[in-house]
Every structure is written in structure tokens, then in C-alpha cells.
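chain below, 416 aa
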Amino acid sequence: MRYLLTTALLLLFTVIAAAADIKIDADYPGGNIIVAEIDGDTVRLERDLRNDTPDFYWSFRIKGAEGRTLNFELTKGANLSTRGPAVSSNNGVTWRWLSDETGFPATKFQYVFGADEKEVLFSAVMNYTARDLNRFLEKYKDNVNLKIETLCQSKKGRKVELLRIPGKGNDADFKAFFTVRHHAREMSASYTLEGILETVLSDSDDGKWLREHCDFFIVPFVDKDGVEDGDSGKNRKPHDHNRDYIQKIYPEVRAITEQVPLWQNGKPLFSLDLHGPGLRAQPSGNQPENNTTESIYFTGPPLDDPVMKENWEKVQRFCKILEKEKKGPIPYKESFNLPFGAGWNTAGNVKPGMLQSKIWAIKTFPDHAFVSTIEIPYANASGVVVDADALRFLGRDLAHAMRIHLETHKKETQKK
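prediction:
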């Protein structure tokens, strides 16, 4: 009896000690988690809401679990993609989805830690913060075409990056304005931007043409504090960055609305705002053709204004080019697009007194070649896995379509 009791106490002590050896934290750029409980091999987690409304985004690091199998449970709005969590075993340099298949449960996952996995990061999405951008830009430190500047200082005093590829500057045929991460958690957009930049800065025909004819103004982190702090950013109170183009309570939006009109200088504008949709497809879906999987899609503006209607026609022409010319693995069809009045893209999506970046750009720059928003899924797009390489390929496809679209626009304008 004494032996059995001693054995039982030893086993209990071992379980408690093993749990105590596990360290879970969010003390890194983009981190966000609250540990509710560690019960043996089960870890219960919830996201840190901070000043955001409940949303799916979370990200944490675990140390001391090598060789173990742990079960994770997410609560209070924290969700998993349809391929499970994003996982990194090299401090966020690269990420993979836990499952190659779709249909992963929304709030639970199990992970078998390798014997050498002393530190593993898990996230709702593939994290991308300033250190990732800096790692990417290091490849172009000697490229004379790229200027790395500062748009402004964030509310918390962080430097907000501005990337400039001026080409001929004010003598360029077009001004190209790109914004990313109006909502901090929409990280798939950042990997896509890398693909766009790779093309524009390359010696390919597309890169040479775009630098010859365009002057680029690129804001990679509109919500810089949210990106670094690990916020969702979506629906932040009193409103998020993408609803701020009237009140301008955020320094980044004030800087954009002050600097872009001066930089644009009356030239035709190509403007793309890159976003990410919900983490998992809802029964109604975001796209008309397939309401059971996520997809790439562009969103249309209200059509009750002739300028808005003309812009949407230009966007549709661009989308036809993209569908025809696309080479990357992520499927895209023009029919995936979400015109105004369909799905969530209605007047009710923006409360009175608020204005989205896309509508601000269309109204501010009536001489435009293209203004739109693109929604880019995180893990699954029409049944195809979305990873960093696929997203960069999408960026290259977007840059190629941009070149063809602007070539056509220039020829049509010269005929008038």
C-alpha cells in the first residue's frame, strides 16, 4: 500500500512539475494570449482583447514542451483556421499550417512537440511584423530604386514605414498608392505585398515598365501599433483605421490624407488597399460562386455616383486581366468579386460619420486608373493552401496585371 501511495504521489508530482516546466508567453512582436489554465497535458487559452472587440486573432510562444503531446483549447472568440494553427519552429522566420487538409476544428488542436523543439510559436495566422519587413528589405539595401522613409510616428511613438519607388517622380505617367494592414491582424496582405515589391524592384519586363511609368507610395503598416502589439485592429473602438478617413484620430491616417494628395500631384492614380477577410468561411460565404471555401476577391464601391461607377468598371477590367494572366497557385476569377450591395459589402458596414480608405481615394482623386480593395484569405483559398510562397506569387500576379492594365489605360487615354 505504501509503495502504491508513493508511486501515485510521484506520478502526481511529475505531472505538476511537467506543467510547471512549460512556459507560455506573448512577449514578442505580434504576441497576444492569456493562459486561463494548464491542466496536465491540456492548455486552455483565450485572447487578450485589450482595446479591440472580440475577434479571432491570437499568437503565443511555448517553451519547455519538447517531446510532449499537448492539447490546446481556445475560448472567448479565439479561433483556428480551417487548416488549424499557423506553426513556427524557428522564431517566426517561416510558418506552416498544422494540417494540410481543411475541415480543422475551430477551437481545439493537439501538437506533438519534437525532441528538439525547445521553442514553438502558434498563431491564428502567419505572423508578419516590422522585423519580417526588415528581413525582406535587407535583400534590397543596395537597390537604388527603393527609398525607405518614415510616414509619421504612431500614437505610441513607433516609426511608421513609408516605402518609395519614385521612378521618374512627378514626371511618371501614374502614381501608385498601396496600403496594407489597416487592420493589424490581416497578415496575408503583407506577404502579398512582398511579391508586388519583388516584381517592381526586379529586372523583369514588368519591373522595368512599372518603374519607368509609375511613382510608388507604399504604407506597409497603417496600424503600426496594432501590428507590433498583437491587436486585431478590426472594429477597434471608437473605430478602426479603415473607418478613420473623416475624423482622422490616428496619426497614420492623418499623414496619408495630408501627404498623398501632394504626392499625387494631379496624375492618374492606381490605388490598392490590401486586406484579409474572416478566418473561416461562414455559411453565407464571401463570394457568390462558392460559399463553402474562402477566395480572393475585390470589393466594389457604391454605384450611385458616376465617379464610383466608372471606377468599378476599371476595376472589373483589371480583374479580367488578372484572371487571364494569373500564374500562381491561388485560384481567382472575376466572378469571385463582391460588388456593393452583396454579402457584407453594404452601407451598413460603415457607420455614419465614418469613411473607408477606398472611398476616400476615389472621391479625392477623380482622375484614377484603378482604386479598389482586395481581400486575401489566410489558410485556404478555393481549396488551395495559402502559404507565404503562394501569397508572394499572388503579389507578382497582381503586379503583372497592373502593368497590362496601365498600358491599356495609357493607350486609351492617348486616343482621346
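Confidence is low (pLDDT under 50) at residues 1-18, 283-293. The chain has nine helices and 18 strands.
thats it, cya
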